């Protein structure tokens, strides 16, 4: 239905499976009574229930939390999106505005959500090809020749990733490290090393593979990751908020390489 009829059909008539609040009485969250059925669950469980409509085991929840803790919560203001939250603090903006700006920048092309989602897509396609007996090696090399890079493999600053061992160790401890996507992710790295490509797995590939093995869809994975950087952003905001205003990483004019028109004479 298009046009005014579509709007009229929805006037005071919103169909939803997500939930509603009945003021003074109760809250329904994905078909569950929030104050009775869900009163004891952790926030991460509520987040994933809202996204997927499904409940997960305690081991899976520990893995989902561990991915955030070990992979995306660095309190370093030099990181591109953390820098925005730090600039918000040094300029005496509010926490909400600062974190909102930093979150928006998280959908970057080289870092952040685009390569993270790209890694999920790449590993999922690789795993699907293997189920029909296609050559994984041919697929990986063809992808490199076509795109000149592989999402989830390589890192802009340094060609190794300190997060892989802690995250993989956690997954093994939880008995969640042996899924098909995770196996394919490591097989891809072996192919890259065997063929002498200077590309190594980064944590985006491992996290995507682990979550794909827990049957999160691509969109569910993206939604689950949406708040994942906040753990590092808030300390950066607080740090600059408690120091003299405007002092976060200033740059003297002499350090600026400027080749435009000279300064005007006032």
Chain-wise SSE layout:
Layout: H1 4-9, E1 19-22, E2 26-29, E3 32-33, H2 43-52, H3 58-71, H4 80-90, H5 95-105, H6 113-130, H7 136-147, H8 164-173, H9 180-194, H10 203-213, H11 218-225, H12 230-241
Antiparallel strand pairs: 1-2, 2-3
Low-confidence stretches: none
Which structural class should the secondary elements be placed in? mainly alpha
Treating each run of at least 4 consecutive H or I residues as one helix, how many helices? 12
Distance between the termini: 63 Å
Largest sheet: 3 strands, antiparallel
Radius of gyration: 23 Å
Helix content: 40-55%
How many beta-strand runs?
3
Give the overall shape, derived from the CA principal axes: globular
The average pLDDT value, as a whole number, equals 93
Strand order of the largest sheet: 1-2-3
Instruction: Give, in order, the helices and strands.
Output: HEEEHHHHHHHHHHH
Strand content: under 5%
- Multimeric state: single chain
